[in-house]
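Justification of resources, computational component.

The compute hours requested in this renewal are based largely on the per-chain cost of generating structure records like the one below. Each record pairs the submitted sequence with a full structure-token output. That output is archived, and it is also reused by downstream analysis tasks.
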Amino acid sequence: MAQAFPEILALGEAMVEFNQSSKDEPNYLQGFGGDTSNFCVAASRQGARTGFVSAVGEDHFGRLLIDLWQREGVDTSAVRIDGQAPTGVYFVSHGPGGHQFDYLRAGSAASRYASRDLPLDAIAGAKVIHLSGISLAISVSVCDAAFAAIEHARANGVRVSFDTNLRLKLWPLARARAVMLEAIRQTDICLPSWDDVTELTGLTGHDEIVDFLLALGPRVVALKLGKEGSYVATPDERRVVPGRVVNAVDATGAGDCFGGAFIARIVAGDDPFDAARYANVAAGLSTQGFGAVAPIPDRATVESVLAN
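The structure output for this chain reads:
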């Protein structure tokens, strides 16, 4: 009997999160984060078979992440346990200017991941492999592994999904622009956020942004516009897919939730516009609780809202 590989693989770094639960007091709720891990959990909660590709430390925080993925049905066979480096952590603080991120990730286990660690059979057996700008920025070895994974996926007819997730604390803009645009050239589905892509391209119009990205090579662009929804474009059609009005308390991870839900629906057979309608609802619901993972809705919850 042939091995059943995950339909969706995501490569990057997962971290343990400490999210300030009150704007007025220094109380932090322990949770989980890391954009591609959030993406994986979101896709899994929508019913997709997912797997994570990374490394964690041989420590308490690494065990917490492994336990999280196993609870969520995310395959961990491609997660390497590194006894020589720690699992990364980060803090989210909330103030008048919004949320602020502080990371303790330098030298983490995930940053030591390399091309030799890639699960080549699982990549070849997937339907989509997902990466992000953070996947490329963690370290040189992870960046090399990401491009090797993209090359192997494309050689085996596996679609590549890419979320910009620009983090200028990790690398300078000029390098980020050069590396990320090269990744987008090898991408089938591009999931940029408005703030990221305007910084990367210098463009500010919806159509000129999606024209620029489609010209690089993707067949689908879903430009995330926050509470306004998303602007979805293919070479043949484009339109705004409106968001859903919610009482948002914490937008941490909402874009990752959108991406996971969007790709889960693409794998399930939806067209990009129906997938975006679904993903908009999932992302909106995820902002109604604190943390990147805990508030991600499941498929039944999203379908209930869509039905009403």
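The chain has a mean pLDDT of 94. The radius of gyration is 18 Å.
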